[in-house]
Amino acid sequence: MARWLRSLVGALLLLEGAAALSFLHHRYEEMVQALFRVQSQCPYVTRIYSIGRSVEGRHLYVLEFSDYPGIHEPLEPEFKYVGNMHGNEVLGRELLLQLSEFLCEEYRRGNERITRLIHDTRIHIMPSMNPDGYEVAAKQGPDGNGYLTGRNNANGVDLNRNFPDLNTFMYYSGEISGPNHHIPLPDNWKSQVEPETLAVIQWISSYNFVLSANLHGGAVVANYPYDKSQDQRFRSHRRTVNTPTPDDRLFQKLAKTYSYAHGWMHRGWNCGDYFADGITNGASWYSLSKGMQDFNYLYTNCFEITLELSCNKFPPEEDLERQWMANREALVAFIEEVHQGIKGMVSDENNNGIAGAVISVQGISHDITSGNMGDYFRLLLPGTYTVTASAEGYQPQTITTTVGPAAPSLVHFQLKQDVVRKLPERKNSGTRMNNKALHKKVVPRATHWGTRR
Q1: Angle at alpha carbon of residue 379, lines to 373 and 380, rounded to 5°
Q2: Residue 4 — very low, low, confident or very high, per pLDDT cuts 50/70/90?
Q3: 1 or 153, which is more confident?
Q4: Would you state the pLDDT for residue 20?
């Protein structure tokens, strides 16, 4: 009851003084102009940067919102939205442009909810991951657009089937008690991915993202990991099986946050399909290999879901305002979900942050790591948890903490260095080792954070 009351209050805050926005389809040049217009209107809380270029040389632009743009503030989580991964699924692209204008305008108006969100969160918005595909689709427009026209990038590759297949490695390693988090990439991975995919992988390796959503079209449902079934290699592509992550209950809650804040997603019946509560496990719907959603979960600290937002992949302009009103509250509410669970600093005895420290939660076999400054963020449902921080060269520390339904709990760890014991001398040894040689140099673990759906 309290959750729905907070959602209602939040929605009322958004309705108060909502700005009039333009509802048009934006070609690449128009999209770039819209982003830079927002940046010029809110210069002190926004920044535009490019993570790379598409096959045809178009920039993959990101608009950042923060009270300190371009700077990671310790204990402030990083969030991202990615749209238009499939070039002909355009609603997400337009919604993210609308969201960018909305956040800027409401911040200027002094909207308390939006101001707090921007001050407490570093928000990254990429309206189009596949600008080349969009241009192909846009040439035909909403009326003549084929179901697959413009879906792929300029090389004809589906970008949501182009990430390294970490699921297969994870399923195999699981049989021998291997990891299902921060799985290393194969040596030749760069030669196997498209420029847009490469740019995104380097991007999510450079920022300690905590929560994310990937916006698609062709259905209306919030889809959560895993997308790939463990039994896919033994099954027909038409066979499906629910394939949950260790964080399944959390992912269901994240998906429901969006579906119930959406105008009609939560009703279940949409586009001729039925999904209870408007959510689905990806593999339970259909199994998908090399997708971006699973890759985020298996390679980084980021929890990502996929949002299918419209039956029509390229809706007409006259439908854009209705779609914006249906998604506006959900887009904001989902960002706010990054502020749950636990967060804190992992430091040594001199209060220096330890990067790459492993944060393990008892009973959930999926770890996350601390970022460059030693801060970490672990999304969790309300409850009591036993959490352990560990790092190479340090003694692990375990703390029991309770997570509430509102703000994240602060849980800091201060790790003590391992005491390196002197090795026993061999009797009758011909040489005697120098004391210095008996001690292993203690080096903190290197940080992980280097520079169809």
Answers
A1: 140
A2: very low
A3: 153
A4: 47
Please choose, from the candidates 437, 212, 152, the residue with its C-alpha nearest in 3D space to the C-alpha of residue 337: 212
pLDDT of 213 over the 90 cut = yes
Q: Hunting for tokens 């035909």 — which residue is that?
A: 140
Structure confidence at residue 170 (pLDDT): 84
What is the Cα–Cα distance from 255 to 238, expressed in whole angstroms? 24
Q: Is the pLDDT of residue 180 over 90?
A: no
Catalytic residue among 308, 329, 336, 337: 308
Nearest to 215 by CA among 147, 132, 306: 306
pLDDT of residue 144: 65
Q: Are 450 and 355 in contact (CB under 8 A)?
A: no
CB 196 within 8 A of CB 254: no
| pLDDT per position as a tens digit, 380-393 | 999 999 999 999 99
* Tokens 């419209």 sit on residue: 310
C-alpha separations of 153 from 110, 193, 198, 261, 287 in Å? 40, 12, 13, 32, 22
Which residues, in sequence order, are bridge partners of residue 27? none
pLDDT digits (tens, 9 = 90+) for 118-155: 999 999 999 999 999 999 999 988 876 567 899 999 99
Three-state SS string over 10-43 comes to HHHHHHCCCCCCCCCCCCHHHHHHHHHHHHHHCC
Query: From CA 214, how far away is CA 331, in angstroms rounded?
Result: 11
Greatest Cα pair distance in the chain: 90
pLDDT of residue 18: 44
Q: Are 442 and 393 in contact (CB under 8 A)?
A: yes
* 78 belongs to the catalytic site: no
More confident residue, 420 or 443: 420
Q: Report the candidate in 266, 250, 79, 14 with the shortest Cα–Cα distance to residue 6.
A: 14
Mapping DSSP to helix (H, G, I), strand (E, B) and coil, where does residue 414 land?
strand
pLDDT of residue 142: 81
218 conformational bin, left if phi > 0, alpha if psi -120 to 50, beta if neither: left
The residue among 397, 166, 444, 429 whose CA lies nearest residue 292 is 166
Tokens (6 digits) for 149: 């026209």
Structure tokens at 424: 């026993």
Closest CA to 153 of 292, 55, 31, 83: 55
Q: Which residues of 156-177 are buried (b: 16+ CB within 10 A; e: fewer)?
A: ebbbbbbbbbbbebbbeeeeee
Burial category of 416 from C-beta neighbours within 10 Å (exposed 0-12, middle 13-18, buried 19 and up): exposed
Q: If you ran DSSP here, which 8-state letter would residue 394 be given?
A: B
Encoded tokens for 300: 């980084």
Whole-angstrom Cα Rg for the chain: 23
| Three-state secondary structure call for residue 55 | coil
